[in-house]
Each structure stands twice: as structure tokens, then as C-alpha cells.
Amino acid sequence: MHTCGRLMVLLLACAEDLECVPGFQQKVFYIEQPFEFTEDQAVLNLEFDDCKGNNKLNFEVSNPDFKVEHDGSLVALKNVSEVGRALFVHARSEHAEDMAEILIVGANEKHGALKEIFKIEGNLGIPRQKRAILATPILIPENQRPPFPRSVGKVISSEGTEGAKFRLSGKGVDQDPKGIFRINEISGDVSVTRTLDREAIANYELEVEVIDISGKTIDGPVRLDISVIDQNDNRPMFKEGPYIGHVMEGSPTGTTVMRMTAFDADDSSTDNALLRYNILKQTPTKPSPNMFYIDPEKGDIVTVVSPVLLDRETMETPKYELVIEAKDMGGLDVGLTGTATATILIDDKNDHPPEFTKKEFQATVKEGVTGVIVNLTVGDQDDPATGAWRAVYTIINGNPAQSFEIHTNPQTNEGMLSVVKPLDYEISAFHTLLIKVENEDPLIPDITYGPSSTATVQITVEDVNEGPVFHPNPMRVTKQENIPVGSVVLTVNATDPDTLQHQTIRYSVYKDPAGWLEINPTNGTIGTTAILDRESPYVQNNVYTALFLAIDSGNPPATGTGTLHITLEDVNDNVPSLYPTLAKVCDDAKDLRVVVLGASDKDLHPNTDPFKFELSKQSGPEKLWRITKLNNTHAQVILLQNLKKANYNIPISVTDSGKPPLTNTTELKLQVCSCKKSKMDCSATDALHISMTLILLSLFSLLCKSFPEL
Q1: How far does CA 16 lie from the centroid of its chain?
Q2: How many whole angstroms separate alpha carbon 678 and alpha carbon 307?
Q3: Which of 17, 74, 75, 624 would you call most buried, defined as having the most Cβ atoms within 10 angstroms of its Cβ?
Q4: Which residues does 24 contact at the CB level (< 8 Å), separation at least 6?
Q5: What is the reported pTM?
Q6: How far apart are CA 376 and CA 356, in angstroms?
Q7: What's the whole-number mean pLDDT along residues 137-157?
Q8: For domain 577-678, is the CATH number 2.60.40.60?
């Protein structure tokens, strides 16, 4: 084969060995980045051939600052210093269209990139391919219109084996998504079968090989790279909304408020995704239609008005809405746009102190009354939703007894002045308070609280006919119970607080639960009308409580209430009681301990235990029971022998330890029952009552003494 047949199509083409391939004869160019592309100066020459005369040939350049002349020269329309990393030239004629890529690199990058494509053979500088298959990269614009299939490139083999054919494989051919690309087995023409979307798949890495008739690989596989060339088919989108920014009022010009960032799905290395930002509309337009500026490249929104105009209190509204536009293609008119709304809130700072609406407030309150007496009003131009508006009130003078307090009404911001300790007209009929108001948040350094932030409150106390007051209250006295009726308990003392009014006081009983007391209406002497009983249910914990009234002679009269606590001392006036009074025992019982008796006394120690237990004198031929003391309050009755089934009454006396002691005799009823199979039968129908026997014996003894002849 001729030597030139082995050279890459990108540099040499030998017409005698290669047939015409429609499209750019060189698809990839590397040029070194100059300091500046000069206007009307040719950058390089592009060669396009549709193999049919290039009728109606037209070129389009991705960067509008460049154009391609009819002879294929790429020239700059103006002096350009920055064009990005690549330019794309799209050529279209009646019979073919193709895309060329111009990569703009530095000197070192260019050398390395070329070495990736070419291998230098010897010192001749003649590039030679290592394999017999020549598969140059293919660039295909996205969004191509039908008809399909459409030829996009060609693979060449220097091998001339008879019956050899090309085979293409990889993602987009025989792997999902299948069937996008195919190759002419004989000619090596590569074609695309449908429209491509770079945002879905930007690059395809295929493999091409030469096989014989049996399918055996003769040469390859060789990698075939297909790149989808981006078109500007995606609008910029703002995805991170809502966009809300804050700036403090009075901020210096140039203060950054927020950043707006849009996203463009197109190729970020091209102008298709090169975004520029702009403010389309500001609402409201006062005090200036241009309150803010947006950095076209970064998207930073900054203030551009003076701090004086950025005054929240003088604005129509503290909220501004900006319609922000993001445009690709570097902001050129041909670029696609997307918009979003940025909301900017002017935050309040405490640059206005609160001021009272008047210098002096008046209030009137009756003595003895508590609660709110006056609301103090203030004005503040700051934001009501902040601590720069909320007021804090302080009483700075005129409140030595802490009789007044002031609190802020959270809804109205008014100061609610209250009386917390009842005022006394007789002590002071007038009060003057000095009150200051501040904000929760501190004022900014240039602002101070002035005279309008303090006010005076004049309070007039009205006289009220107050009820007499007992001294002391409650009153306490100790008396012995059972003192004689008519005894003096106490003389009470009540005074009238209305010292400026000369009034008399009368006394009366208000509550006397047991009806034991009376009071002299004139001098307040309390006496007894009945016996005081410490054991009465009206006495709690030895204390009897009664209430008395002191009534002045005012119109209408006022009343005061006094409480009297009488502590009653105990005397021995209650006999002890015995319990239980009934006991049962079996007639054949082995344990003759019948019952344990207890004694109680309503009196207090020492008028109670230790108790003395005794049996009344037993009559008859023999003793049937005895009583044994167990402790100070209990004793045990014991049978001396088993008794027949019957009911017995046993008189027992109990004596307390008082001085003098008191004795009580109680009959203990003892039932002797028959017991069989754990059942007790206490019916006494066939039994003699022991007390009746004792009575008959006593009568017989008396008769014998009276009539000895019997």
C-alpha cells in the first residue's frame, strides 16, 4: 500500500487511495490560546466537502464573536480575549452537515493533546497509525432533525483482506440503549439512527474491529469515541427557592444581601451554560427604582442606595420583591432565560426610642383596693414584631414601700400601672411616681433616650370607711373547763383606722358554735353563759373558737371581725368506761381466760390511766372467777372452774387516777355455751341465770336472820 494510505485522515488525504467522505475533512483542531483574538484576523482554515459541490453551504459558530468566511477561514468579529475552552463550528449544505471542534489550550496542553492522537515516527515528523484501523473521534450535534439514519463519520482500514468487514459494538449499539449507532460492514460508514440528547448521554465509547467471513477478528478492536455536541436547548433554572434575603436598615452601600444561583443542564464548558444575571423588576419602586444590584456573574445581590434611603420607618413597605433573570450564552440576546423572585426584607434596628404620649398621667384609687389603676401609652416607630419596639417600664422614684408595680401589655405595648399593696388614705392621700420606658433591645450607638422617655404619674387616694381592727387578731386565752357561768373570759380591743373620723364602736357575737359566750356591746368584755366543756364536739384539739364583730358608727357602718381561741384545761369530770361488756366461753373450755377488758377516759392525763380494776364482792359458797391487771389500761377475767351452760352477769368497777378519782361499775355479761364439733350453742333456755341464784340465796339469808325459828 502507498505510504500516504497509512497516515491519519486528520492530516493527510490521498485522493488516489481514499474515497470522498462528506463533512469536515478535519474534525478536531487544537490552537494555542493567544493573548487576544484580533478583529478580522484568520484563526485557522476549515475544509468542508459534501462530495457534491458544497451547494448552499452555511457555517454557524457557537461563539457569536466569530464567523466562518465562504473560503473556510475562521475570523474574529472583534478583539476577543476570553472565549472559553472550545469553539464548535456547524456546517450544513444541501447534501451534508457536520460539526468541527476547535479546542483552545495552552502550549503545554497542546503538545500533550497531540501526542495522544499521533505517534511520531522517526525524525520525519510523519504521523503513522499503530493499527490498520483508523477510527477518528466523531462529534455529533444533539437535537438533529430527521431524516435518519444519518451518516456521521467513517472508519477506514488499511488491510485489504478479501471478504473482511467491519463490526461495531458497545453501549448504543448492542448494549442499552441499543441501536443508536450502526456501521456499514463494507464501507465503514458510521451512522446515527435517532436524535441524541447530550444531557442524557454526552459520550459513547464504542469498539470497532475487522472480521473475516467466519466472524474471526482480523484487526482490532479499536476504540471509537463519539461525543455529543451540546446545543443550547436547556433554559437556566432556579431550583433552590424560595429565595428570601435580609438586610439591616441603614446598611452601607454595597452590603451583600443574598446570592441567587441558577442551574443550566447544558455543557458547562460552553457558553450554552455560561450564565449572566440581571434584575428585571423591583417592587415597590420607592424610594428608588434601583435599590439593589446583582453581580451578573456571581449572582450576589447588593444594596446600591445610601444608608439614609434604606430607612425602614420611611419606606412604603419593608419588603421588596426582585424578578431575577438568568440568561445563558453569557447573557447575549440569543441566550435562553429563566426567572425567579427574590424577596428582600429590610430588618429593623433600634434607631427610635419609645416616647410617652404625654408627660403626666393621672390616676385615682380607693384606699384598700389593689389592681390596675392606669395604662401609660407610648409611641415607637420601630418594628412591632421586634425587641426594638417592645417597651420595658421601670418606676424610678416615688415607690419606697413597693406599693406599685408596672408591667407591659404585650398586645398594645402600654404600661399597666398597678397597686399591689393596699394604700391607706390616713397615711398618704397623694402619691407621685416617676416612670421611665426603654426597649427590650439596646438602642444603636448614635441614639439615646431623651426626656420623652420619662413621665410622671399623679395618684389620688380616696378615703373609704374602713372597718374596725381587733388587736391582736386572733386573740388567745386559756381557761379551765367547768368554770362558773358568768365568768369573764377576755376584754377585746378594736380601733377604727379612720382616725380623721370620730366614730364609736359596738361589739356583737358573730359565731359561737356551742352558745357558751356573750360580749358587752360597749366595752367588749366577753363572759360565759354556759359551762365550758373540753370534751364537747365543738372543741378541737382542746381549743374552742368563736368570732366577734366590731361595728363603727359610719354611714354605712363598717365592720371588722375578730377571732377568739380559748384553750380549755382539763379537769377530772368524766368516769372511765369499760369494754367489751359481753364475753362467751365453752362449758368444757380448757383455757379459762375468758376475756381481756380495756378502759378509756375522755379526760386528759393525769386524770385517766393507770386504771384500777376490781370485782364486786362475790356471794355464794365458792368463788367462780377472778380479775387480773395486765397493764395500766387492761385487765383479764379468768374462770376458776368450768361452769354450766348459762348466762352470768359479773359486776366490775374501774377507777381512774384523777384527784379526786372517779369510779364506774359496769356489768360484764358472760355467756357459757355448749360447744360441739366447732359449733357454739349459747341458748340459755334450760340454764339458770347466776344472778337470780345469787338473789334467792341473799333473800334466804335475810329471812334466816329475821326469823331464827326457821
Answers
A1: 84
A2: 109
A3: 74
A4: 46, 47, 48, 89, 91, 98, 99, 100
A5: 0.49
A6: 8
A7: 89
A8: yes
